[in-house]
Amino acid sequence: MPRIKLEPLGISINVSAKNRLWRSLKHAKVELAATCGGQGTCGTCALRVFDGASSLSPMQNLEQVTLKNIRKDASLYRLTCQTSVVDDGVVFYLDNKADKKLAQIFARLKNRLAPLNIYHPITGALLVQEGSLITQEILENLLSDA
């Protein structure tokens, strides 16, 4: 499963290569707008790619046209609703409100003791036992698809 990094949060998460990136980010509680419903026409889910663009699915014509229409450089941005991550090493920059909400969640949980056992929402694997320290690594695993 591919792993991406989200800046300026400095977190890494696993994403599904089978799904569009927008769905994996939504699962990780990174809420990006997609006013067109993920059809690739509004451009509200565009993210800047800092590194690893070659590890993303090829850009189709619709995505290129939409990025041009919203005045985003197609060599620097991708529409998350039209893009899949095929390999590790992609670094995105969150330049919207989504990173603020996630940062607040991390700040409240990180380096605190878990009040209950915390399980991964998809796999059901125990991530942290009740009374144990919630670390950055545990939070990243919680946000990952697997």
UniProtKB/TrEMBL annotation:
Per its UniProt record, what Pfam families does this chain match?
Fer2
InterPro entries documented for this protein = 2Fe-2S_ferredoxin-like_sf, 2Fe-2S_ferredoxin-type, Beta-grasp_dom_sf
Q: What is this protein called?
A: 2Fe-2S iron-sulfur cluster binding domain-containing protein
Residue ranges of domain 2Fe-2S ferredoxin-type in the record: 2-98
SUPFAM superfamilies in the record: 2Fe-2S ferredoxin-like
